[in-house]
Amino acid sequence: MSVESMAIALNHSQTSGTAKLVLIGIANHDGDGGSWPSVATLARYAGVTPRNVQKAIDVLVKLGEVKRLANQGGTHRTPDHARPNLYRFELKCPPTCDRSSAHRTREPLPGLEFSTGVSLPTGGVASDRGGVSRATPEPSSNHPYSSREETYVPERGREAESDAYGATPRAASASTGCTHRMVTDRHCEMGCPPLEARS
């Protein structure tokens, strides 16, 4: 079963009614080796007669949404005389599809070629002499700085400050002699040795 093929059939098919139901049935069976549901199975899905399924398949083939290969379906164990037709699901998302789960289509922008993704060339400017323009010397302002800036907190405010582990940043500095945030009562976040280990 190919959910992607079914979503494309539901959202991008040019057909309606029986032909669309038959297309959804073919998409339901679509896989790497194609799709080979019997006409009777497709008739059961669509709620129509086998002859109406055959007419719907003819419409789908004519529109190019399905390719029919006579007696090419089945597995390697299927004898040649019993092979069903193989159907190739040919329908694809149009270039204007956003390829989301809703398969919304948007209006194409003027002057763009969607098949290649490249915009059409322009005539240029008469004063353009070619070459490369100078790079901007300033750094980009749309990226945040990677380093954190320390904010000023008075000493009495630091005693009340604590992290997610409940350790206070300055309260245990007497045991290590450093000013780093304490992780336990004897160890700071930077791994400084306790005072008694340094003597």
TrEMBL record:
Domain of life the protein comes from: Bacteria
Residue ranges of the region described as Disordered: 97-178
Compositional bias ranges of the Basic and acidic residues kind: 146-161
Family matches, as Pfam families: HTH_36
The name this protein goes by in its record: Helix-turn-helix domain-containing protein
